[in-house]
Amino acid sequence: MSVNTNLLGRALLRNRGRVASGSLLIGVHQGCEALVPILIGVIVDRAVATRDLCMLAVWVSALGALYLLLTVAYRTGARQLMRAIADEAHRLRLEVAAKVLDPRTEVRTGDVLTISTTDADTTSYLLDYLPRLFGALVATAISATGLFLISVPLGLVVLIGIPVVLIGLQRAAPRIIRRVIARQEVAGRAASLATDLVTGLRPLRGIGAQEAAARRYREVSRESLGATMRAAKTLGWFQAASDTVSTLVACGIAILAGWFALTGRISAGELVTVIGLAAFLGEPFATLSAAPGWFASSRASAQRIEAILGRVPAGVPAGDNPIPPVRGECVGVVAEPDASALVALFDDGSPDVLVAPHLPELFSGTIRDNLIDAEGDELPAVLRASAADDVVAAHPDGLDHAIADRGAALSGGQRQRLALARALLARPRLLVLHEPTTAVDAVTEHAIARGIRDLRHGPGSTLGTLLVTTSPALLAITDRVVVLRDGEVVATGTHASLAATDDDYRTAVLR
Predict the structure, then answer these.
(1) Could you read off the pLDDT of 305-320 as tens digits, one per residue?
(2) Which of 6, 320, 389, 390 sits at a 20 to 30 Å CA gap from 190?
(3) pTM of the prediction?
(4) Does the domain made of 330-509 have the CATH classification 3.40.50.300?
């Protein structure tokens, strides 16, 4: 189903069975809750006032059966709704993950974190809000009917008061949506920045920039705190207003009932019923008055999810690959504006093609484990070509040095060099490297460039290498360079000739 502005409607549609049965059972539960004070009033008038033990036993048994029914209905209904909420949140997380895992889609890490957790949960809570609203309406209708049977003015207080309260509170919904969206946006930026800082902590320390980075994070964190406080303040005022109005309505019903009892217009049992219903009505009143705020939060989170799911990935070059697979040749590619789209074209699972992504992934284990085939005769040459021999030599355990999940304890440059060594060890017929040296220093980058050339393109080699990069050090060792702009080949030649004659190439590459 295509993404549109009806993400909440889609959630309801694909969970309609559980939501319908859960709503029915929650409605039964709330209806039984409303009947409890009515039944107690009947017991007072027909059994206690008349001192009829048989009637007392009958009505107390009925009250016990009512409690059993409301308990079973609530447990069963709540179980159905919790399953629906969990399943829907899981589906939304999978959809967000599928979108952000597309290499052509640019999404901040912090946005992914908040949207796939907080927003997915808040959106799925709609499946609980509607049954609760339905139950509140059932309880209110039964209570209003009971009050009407006792006294028409008491019933009118409920029927007139509720619509007035709901209309007034609904006016606050747009402000709640705006502030919740603002809070989540800033929280996403803060989480994204924190992730970047943790990932790049060692390089930041190396260049002495950790204090500036920490200062920037403090600024974003304070901004996030301010947005959170504003959203909380709005929700707090809304909740306080709804609770106050609910309490005032319940108190008004109780006071009016007390007056009617003193003037003899209602019996003692009816007074007990009215007081009980007035106390009970605080719950459905609170639900009805808070519902606009709940739905506003769900809509705000749904809008953020839709913004991610509705993103159109950067366009891929039309037709066949503009760069044919190379054999025995080292080709450089400068792709604008999005090199990821080009790289994705080669990632088709072919056994002859290996794509090494820009962001390398290491797994927990040893350096030897991450290199996969770390026992062959080519290992020393590969480690030298990728400059990964320095990474191995930096640790007393050498190849047996333990690596944390995703290489968290290594610098970005160390991770890139180990990932490059792993790709070179595989010796694919065509190796596609996407910006493999962005985290290393200039001296190391030149050494890696020469190492790739010597290892894969010696005399008589039939191996092909595609370097998708803007690094002049890497482009300088290629046989030719192809410049792509919006999927079209706009220039070809050697790095030296393009640098000398093409102003746009110089702007993109020379730095």
Answers:
(1) 888 888 765 544 444 4
(2) 6
(3) 0.54
(4) yes
